[in-house]
Amino acid sequence: MTAVDGTTVRVDEVEQLAVDGLRWLVAEAGETPDGGLSWSSSPSNPTLYSGTAGIVPVLLEAWRHFGDDSYADLALRAGRSVAAAVDDHEDDSLYFGRAGMALALRALHDELGDTACRTASDRALALVRAHFDGERWGELFELMGGNGGIGLAALACGDPEFAVLAVEPYLRAAEPTPTGVTWPHRPGTDARMHHMSHGTLGIAYSLARIGHATGRADLVGTALAGVGDVVARDEDGPDGFLVRHSTPQFRPDVIDPISYGWCHGPTGDAQLFRLLRDTQGDPSWSALADRCWHTVTHSGLPRRRHPGFWDNNGRCCGTAGVLALACDRLAEGRDAHDFATLLVTDLTTRATHDSTGARWSNTEHRATPSDLAPRPDWAQGNAGIVRELLRFVRVSRGGETGYAFSWPDQPPVSAQATEPIRRAGTAAPS
């Protein structure tokens, strides 16, 4: 295959890069006293975002992709250390706490049949529920660190009643605007964030997904009101879709007002519009997802146009997150092949290779040196990148379109486009 800039990257080379990325990631693990594995600068980080729970999805992905049980064994050892941290971890959220740990442990039970992981998952979710004060779990009040993500985790773990309980406070806390509603992401700030990770669209995603699953029209209606507020802020219509990070700008000394990734930009916005397309039956949502894609593909990324522009390779804020959306579109028969190839080529050229494998460094242009240390985690490191590279390989070969572990804030490919998921032990596509 040939990228837009003329660089040639073959699918089997991308697969080998993923293997090398896995090799480096595995080598970075530390063994816990009970024989578990932990990935983090501190053994106390078991989270989805930057810790061991976030390594589980890529190990399950590798197991499914290659049919190699050694990856399943590594995933179970990772689960052992996550389970051991359930009681002592201090946060309850999806990305930073027990709800995400519960989700990873539940996946290990569902995929590999490990009953100890299921027991630990149930305990983690029970502790999350016990810590609910009726309105929230802590300072953050959004998807990544608050009610929205906890509700999504509860739904994914098979507890829709708890999912509804988690997101109902958004009905009471919604702030009316001329075009809809919004929410503060934490107390004591005037800024209202607009996108998936900490803003209105992330809350709307949680409300819409849980409301649709449970038949709660009031949750869906409030979600649509939140979306209405953000859509009215678009600055790139009629062809594109681009909304500023926040209003007024949150921490303008360190945060750019415009971003393009999953967390604060049209890449993540498109995932909400894909969900509404599939649950609301209105073609306008598909058009909005297409407009997001137009803006992303005309933004200049993944080129580093100036210091601070597109300095991240990772899944949360960088190239791998855009690749996830590109592969969603490829799997749904939409025009994304050339741009997906461009993204994969960029990840290939930015990888560092040596005898330990492959890994990626992000950039902080305000620091010296500006190249940051490679990380193994989902958000900014190998786990998130390798997971998307493996999926790109499968989609490019006409194989399965989904994931072994479905992140709850990324809608699945439309059912009519989804291939049956291949189980471990079957041959990988050639």
Protein model, in words:
The chain has 15 helices and eight strands. It has helices spanning 11-27, 56-66, 69-84, 98-112, 115-130, 147-156, 160-167, 169-173, 200-214, 217-231, 266-280, 283-297, 319-331, 337-350, 382-396, and strands at residues 30-31, 37-38, 175-177, 180-182, 192-193, 246-247, 352-354, 357-359. It has a two-stranded antiparallel sheet. It is globular and about 60 Å long. The model is unreliable at 1-6 and 417-430 (pLDDT under 50).
List the helices and strands and how they pair.
Elements: H1 11-27, E1 30-31, E2 37-38, H2 56-66, H3 69-84, H4 98-112, H5 115-130, H6 147-156, H7 160-167, H8 169-173, E3 175-177, E4 180-182, E5 192-193, H9 200-214, H10 217-231, E6 246-247, H11 266-280, H12 283-297, H13 319-331, H14 337-350, E7 352-354, E8 357-359, H15 382-396
Antiparallel strand pairs: 1-2, 3-4, 5-6, 7-8
Helix pairs in contact: 1-15, 2-3, 2-15, 3-4, 3-5, 4-5, 4-6, 6-7, 6-9, 7-9, 9-10, 9-11, 11-12, 13-14, 13-15
